[in-house]
Amino acid sequence: MDIRRLKSFIVIVDSGSITRAADILHLAQPALSQQLAALEDHFGQKLLIRSQQGVTMTDAGQAVYRHAQIILRQMEQAQSDVATAGRSLAGRVSVGLVPFSSAATLSVELLAETRKRHPGILLHLTESVGQTYSQMIMNGRLEMALIHGVGPIKGVRFEPLLKEEFFVVAHPDFEIEASDAPVPVTALDGLPFLMPPAYNFVRRAVDTAFSRSKVELKVVAEVEIVRTLSRSVDRGLGVTIMPKAIADRLIAESSEKLICRLVSPRIEETLSLCVSDQTPLSEPAVAVKDILVELTARLKT
Fold this sequence. Notes:
The chain is α/β, with parallel strands linked by helices. The protein has helices at about 5-15, 20-25, 30-45, 60-85, 105-115, 135-140, 200-210, 225-235, 245-255, 285-300; strands at about 50, 55, 90-95, 120-125, 145-150, 155-170, 185, 190-195, 220, 240-245, 260-265, 270-275.
């Protein structure tokens, strides 16, 4: 099989359109359509459904997409291994770091340590609220990710690394007293909250805690950018509840003396390293994983 057809298929799926994919690949649209037809002939299955809105994968297409990602990564790794045989580790390693967590604070350190120890490794870092990292690992788009949760999810393996406690962070104007004691959830009833969207793991944990305490979580804005959240809390536009690493960042970036207290009942989530249970990590990916586990362990101290 021509590897270029698999690459073209991935670009078509990722761009959502044969027309856009043809532009990205600098190919004529009829030529790209012929590559897709040849791929469908090879597998004897329809891989994509075309519509005015673009293309969507069939079940067979999802299987081909997943294997194509793995095959192309293995080809890239083979080229790197041959080029650097007998020398240092080299190759591309893709890592997802879930936002609004301790994982998001590790990106610069992970990049710095990887460059220091293994300068031949090309590190690809992803930090996105809207993408499901476990699905991206199963599809071969990521090799590993630090995410909230312990599974189980078919196709991936979870290694719990860290328990994250959640803290309420508020401007003094909201009259939450400074104290080392946890603030009861009932004391937060009706306050204006700035939180990530409902599908975010942090938001779901907070929603669950408030629901169990029969307290209203009054969300006045859904914010997906930590920097925007920091500025908004600093200006007193609302309060928030975040894992400790993010709460510490909000405090550090504030021009005000913000209130930061644990919540009672306690809200916490497990941060886990997630990898495929089907495809073994490449040697460079194992090296990056070791660094990531080491950096996460430092957060416990």
